[in-house]
Amino acid sequence: MRILAAGDHFVSPDLIRAALRRELSEDPPAGPAGAAQPQVTELVLPWPHEPFGPVGGVQEASGSEDRLIEALQGAAVCVTQMGPFTAKVFDARPELRMVAVCRGGPVNVDLAAATRHGVAVSFAPGRNAPAAAEFAVGLMLAALRRIPTADAELKQGRWRGDFYAYDECGGELDGATVGLVGYGAIGSRVARVLTAFGARVLTADPYADPDAVRADGVEPVELDELMRRSSVVSLHARLTPETHHLIDAERLALLPEGAVLVNSARGALLDHAPLPDLLKSGRLRALALDVYDVEPPPADWPLHDAPNVVTAPHLGGATRQTAHRAAAITAAEVGRFLRGRPLAHPANPEVTPTVPEA
Length: 358
Prior knowledge:
With about 350 residues, the chain is of the alpha/beta class. The chain has 12 helices and 14 strands. It folds into 2 domains: about 150 residues, NAD(P)-binding Rossmann-like Domain (Rossmann fold), CATH 3.40.50; about 180 residues, Rossmann fold, CATH 3.40.50.
């Protein structure tokens, strides 16, 4: 049986191959499909050296449909992070039985088309939770203490001792009220770190168990209350049709004067249009972004010239540990598939995975 490792320059085919080897050698699948180690072939997609984007109706994909179709010839399983699994791809490769996606959500897969073709799709929730949580806290500290600005000024030969002035210096997490919009794998980790800093943590998440949230020392509240009470707000919600522009102009207007806003989740959670004026007026003391409404932001992006903005090019999950974790989670799913066991993280559970006879 053939498996395609459609990796990229982050979760590479070598990492996927090594994870599959460990998974399948420790507990070899029984029966015809497990009689020998599957043949693993490789495809290298261009991300992140080339930005991902929409391809053939799916989002955040890398490479072309035609190249993927060619590489999938004879493959029953594909492990990928960014491959564009569109209806065209599924139509062209009816022998495909499973797609294991190395990311927190299979946004690069047309799930309706996969389901029509009886292809099981899995994903890797939590693969970047430690990295994303640490990065979010790093953005908070960078924005609160103006670390990037101070660094840039000193490298230009300017010793900004005036940043120590009361009107210019930043604030602390210790004693601050920090609101987390979303309390999943990442938000809950951020809360633990913030609690260690001495912050009071609020969260707004309609899907979180309030008793479990309180057990973590976090106060569950409604979103509008969170916006009114928090001196720092950090976004950790999933992007869905319901959460698009969840933080809009009306909710931004609820923030207390001098608040700090951090978004390292998804750009479209936040309405960017009001942000320049909020920064110039001081309603927002600082803004830290790792994600954007358009990626990358255009040259005339208004926030390029706005004061007290910290930016990064969507790096929240960019650690080597994340890449290894993603490969290991998806390899385990492939192992379950080949052994005829239920998938741990099915994206289309209505499909019953069927193992090829040989």
